[in-house]
Amino acid sequence: MSPQVEPPASYWFRCPVLRTPLISEIKARLDAHVPDFPPQGSAIETAELELLQYLYNNRENPRLLETTHSLGTGDNRITFQNRLSAFLKSRKYVNPFPAGAVLNRRPSNFPIIKYGAEQARLFESETPGLWHRHVLNVLLDEEIMRPSGPIKLGQLLSPPRQSIIWAALDLAIATALMAAWHYKWIPSPPFFPPFPPSRPILSLRPGGQIGRRPRPVEINPRLPVLYDFEVSYREVGDITQMPTRRTGPLPSPGTPRHPSYPSGHSTYAAAASQVLGCFFPMYRTEFDLLADNIGIARLWGGVHYLSDHTAGQIIGRTVGDMIIEQLNTSGKIKADPDELTSELPPTRTEIQNQFEELPDCGEGNENFCAVRFEEISKIQGKQG
Prior knowledge:
By secondary structure, the chain is mainly α. Helices cover 40% and strands 7% of the residues. It contains eleven helices and eight strands. Helix 6 crosses helix 9 (306-328), helix 7 packs antiparallel against helix 8 (284-301) and helix 7 runs parallel beside helix 9. The protein is globular. Residues 192-219, 334-341 and 379-384 have low confidence and may be disordered.
């Protein structure tokens, strides 16, 4: 009896399958919890600008990569810790690396992140969720020991269950980004900080239609945006922050041309980590760190405030929880974990009876993630 058989998957879709949460549902959860951006000229904004100046000055300082960064005083003191996830440090997640990632050219590209400029470049313009998808593939291909011998993690999951995992991940990423764009554009007025990043000016046309009135980007000589320059390398293969300036697209060659608040990277990364942390609880801490690393990378690049990152994580985690709640009411959790030890799959009649006896889907008090992953977690724990 292989876990991949999982006959109850034949009646999973009698209950609602995953869907995109409505913006009204998301706002009902979030509007009271997403903070306003600090007022322009406030002490908090000044402290966040000082933090970005500090990060810019230390973009190539390896001693300040994995450390606690703190600036300001009293109630205006801001602090964050940049501790890298194992998914960005262990060779098994790095070699091979995901296609499209911007890496240094050191031998074997290892370590892939030595200082802030390299963390920024790694998450400059990747496909949303690129690293989460890459890590998921590595995890599913990982061998774990069972009494009968080694088996790949993916072999403990039936194909329908694997497809649900991928669907939940992609839906979380897509929904989080749509939610981020709502909060970027709909609240009035959208927030365009003077620097960083330099963004287009907005004007309201008759009827409330938003129209862009581009202006040349004002380059702040004290705080250049890393992404406004081409990727460049030293002879040793390290990424450097002093390459050739990009000339297009205008008006801001490497700076995003949409409102900075909230950070889209922080939003999708938090949603993806929330979902994958549910599926793989033994890696939850590392997924949380990965989400933070992706958001902080944008601060190293000079295109986001810390407040952008904080708000994005709030939105993303909420969206991730909403996807998990859908799984808990989907009826897909009715498969009995004890079937893993069965010698023979149930008969067609038994499956038909289970289908007919299945109640009207879940009530939200089930734990979809625990059905197959508690056992995996215990096995991983024994292996250390």
